[in-house]
Design a protein that fits this description.
Length: 115
Protein backbone atom coordinates (compact mmCIF):
# COMPACT_ATOMS: atom_id res chain seq x y z
CA UNK A 1 0.00 0.00 0.00
CA UNK A 2 1.35 3.39 -0.96
CA UNK A 3 0.26 6.26 1.25
CA UNK A 4 -0.07 9.60 -0.45
CA UNK A 5 -1.89 11.78 2.02
CA UNK A 6 -2.39 12.46 5.71
CA UNK A 7 -5.98 11.34 5.30
CA UNK A 8 -4.77 7.90 4.33
CA UNK A 9 -2.29 7.93 7.18
CA UNK A 10 -5.06 8.79 9.62
CA UNK A 11 -7.22 5.95 8.28
CA UNK A 12 -4.29 3.58 8.61
CA UNK A 13 -3.58 4.72 12.19
CA UNK A 14 -7.23 4.48 13.17
CA UNK A 15 -7.70 1.02 11.73
CA UNK A 16 -4.48 -0.13 13.38
CA UNK A 17 -5.66 1.30 16.71
CA UNK A 18 -8.99 -0.51 16.37
CA UNK A 19 -7.19 -3.75 15.53
CA UNK A 20 -4.93 -3.40 18.59
CA UNK A 21 -7.88 -2.65 20.86
CA UNK A 22 -9.64 -5.79 19.69
CA UNK A 23 -6.53 -7.90 20.31
CA UNK A 24 -5.97 -6.32 23.74
CA UNK A 25 -9.56 -6.89 24.75
CA UNK A 26 -9.38 -10.47 23.58
CA UNK A 27 -6.07 -11.24 25.28
CA UNK A 28 -7.32 -9.68 28.51
CA UNK A 29 -10.41 -11.88 28.70
CA UNK A 30 -8.47 -14.98 27.72
CA UNK A 31 -6.02 -14.32 30.57
CA UNK A 32 -8.87 -14.22 33.08
CA UNK A 33 -10.37 -17.45 31.81
CA UNK A 34 -7.06 -19.20 32.42
CA UNK A 35 -6.84 -18.17 36.06
CA UNK A 36 -7.38 -21.05 38.47
CA UNK A 37 -7.28 -23.80 35.86
CA UNK A 38 -4.62 -26.31 34.86
CA UNK A 39 -4.55 -29.70 36.57
CA UNK A 40 -1.32 -31.07 35.18
CA UNK A 41 2.25 -29.96 35.67
CA UNK A 42 2.76 -29.74 31.91
CA UNK A 43 -0.33 -27.60 31.52
CA UNK A 44 0.81 -25.28 34.26
CA UNK A 45 4.19 -24.82 32.65
CA UNK A 46 2.63 -24.19 29.27
CA UNK A 47 0.16 -21.83 30.81
CA UNK A 48 2.83 -19.88 32.65
CA UNK A 49 4.74 -19.60 29.41
CA UNK A 50 1.63 -18.47 27.55
CA UNK A 51 0.90 -15.87 30.19
CA UNK A 52 4.46 -14.56 30.11
CA UNK A 53 4.22 -14.33 26.34
CA UNK A 54 0.84 -12.70 26.58
CA UNK A 55 2.17 -10.19 29.05
CA UNK A 56 5.10 -9.04 26.95
CA UNK A 57 3.07 -9.08 23.75
CA UNK A 58 0.32 -7.18 25.52
CA UNK A 59 2.74 -4.58 26.80
CA UNK A 60 4.21 -3.94 23.40
CA UNK A 61 0.71 -3.73 21.91
CA UNK A 62 -0.26 -1.22 24.58
CA UNK A 63 2.86 0.82 23.85
CA UNK A 64 2.07 0.82 20.13
CA UNK A 65 -1.52 1.76 20.85
CA UNK A 66 -0.34 4.74 22.92
CA UNK A 67 2.05 5.82 20.15
CA UNK A 68 -0.81 5.66 17.67
CA UNK A 69 -3.02 7.80 19.94
CA UNK A 70 -0.18 10.27 20.16
CA UNK A 71 0.25 10.33 16.37
CA UNK A 72 -3.50 10.87 15.89
CA UNK A 73 -3.52 13.78 18.33
CA UNK A 74 -0.61 15.31 16.45
CA UNK A 75 -2.59 14.95 13.22
CA UNK A 76 -5.45 16.79 14.93
CA UNK A 77 -3.10 19.58 15.94
CA UNK A 78 -1.54 19.80 12.49
CA UNK A 79 1.94 19.00 13.77
CA UNK A 80 2.08 15.47 12.49
CA UNK A 81 5.21 14.34 10.63
CA UNK A 82 7.56 16.76 12.37
CA UNK A 83 10.39 15.28 14.43
CA UNK A 84 9.77 15.88 18.13
CA UNK A 85 13.44 16.22 18.83
CA UNK A 86 14.93 18.40 16.07
CA UNK A 87 11.78 19.76 14.41
CA UNK A 88 12.54 18.80 10.83
CA UNK A 89 10.03 17.03 8.61
CA UNK A 90 10.24 13.27 8.97
CA UNK A 91 10.81 11.42 5.69
CA UNK A 92 7.54 10.37 4.12
CA UNK A 93 9.00 6.92 3.47
CA UNK A 94 9.63 6.53 7.18
CA UNK A 95 6.08 7.56 8.05
CA UNK A 96 4.74 5.09 5.52
CA UNK A 97 6.67 2.30 7.19
CA UNK A 98 5.98 3.48 10.73
CA UNK A 99 3.13 6.02 10.85
CA UNK A 100 3.37 6.38 14.62
CA UNK A 101 7.04 7.45 14.51
CA UNK A 102 7.78 10.49 16.69
CA UNK A 103 11.33 11.10 15.60
CA UNK A 104 13.17 11.45 12.32
CA UNK A 105 15.49 8.60 11.45
CA UNK A 106 18.60 10.45 12.68
CA UNK A 107 17.14 11.30 16.09
CA UNK A 108 15.72 7.78 16.38
CA UNK A 109 19.13 6.25 15.71
CA UNK A 110 20.71 8.57 18.25
CA UNK A 111 18.12 7.67 20.90
CA UNK A 112 18.40 3.93 20.18
CA UNK A 113 22.16 4.22 20.44
CA UNK A 114 21.96 6.13 23.69
CA UNK A 115 19.95 3.44 25.43
ZN1 LIG B 1 15.00 14.67 14.41
Amino acid sequence: MVIRSETQLRQMLESERTRLQVILKHSGSRGNEHTGYGNHMADDATEAFDQAMDFSVRRSLEDTSREIDHALSKLDQGIYGVCESCGIRVDWARLEAKPEARLCIRCQQRSDFGR
